[in-house]
Fold:
Amino acid sequence: MVLLQPDPFLNELTSMFEHSTEKGTVWVTLKRSSLKSKVQRNKMAAAGEPLEYRCLIRATNGKKTISTSVGPKDHQRFQASYATILKAHMTSLKKRERKDKKKVPGADKKEGGSKKPKRA
Amino acid sequence: MVYITSWDEFVERSAQLFRADPDSTRYVMKYRHCDGKLVLKVTDNKECLKFKTDQAQDAKKMEKLNNIFFTLMSRGPDADVSEVAGKEQTEAQPGKKGRGRKQ
Structure:
């Protein structure tokens, strides 16, 4: 499990999406974590220190896993970049069809023109 | 494994699940480009909610949900979500252009 900084994480995530277009899956998991062991947490709680929570983000393509941790200060920026990456790559989802827009049946090329009366 | 059909219900219940147990709730997204499918899962290891789709419009809704989760997770479960009002504030400025009189 590779723990990265948010920016390299985003780069790696982009390349994961790019590599799994033909086949493969990308999983992204979001979880809240303080990144401290239980012992440390208990100590901090006992000492009255406020625990700082961060958002742990993990991504995998089945073979490789990368992760990063985002705090409240950088989460706005991270989520904007993350949204951009997702929008750019989730292109294979179906567009919404409200009415079945039947494409103009005039796609048939002028077949009537083939019959040219032969005039002597 | 419960698949929720309504998006709004999924969002509502996921937020509830998170607020009830912020330390064990996680949000998983699985995307398969070759199948054109997106599956979202929110679980607290006791209960599990899933949502699957192949619609591009749901990807946009999912982005909003991502924002909600980011806010909740990094700021704490009591954070004011308000559907991430930040975006709406920037769009709320109507472009009052002067009525161009071409003379």
Summary: Chain B has a mean pLDDT of 81. Chain B has one domain: 2-82. The beta strands of chain B are 2-3, 26-32, 37-43, 48-53. Helices of chain B lie at 7-20, 56-75, 85-91.
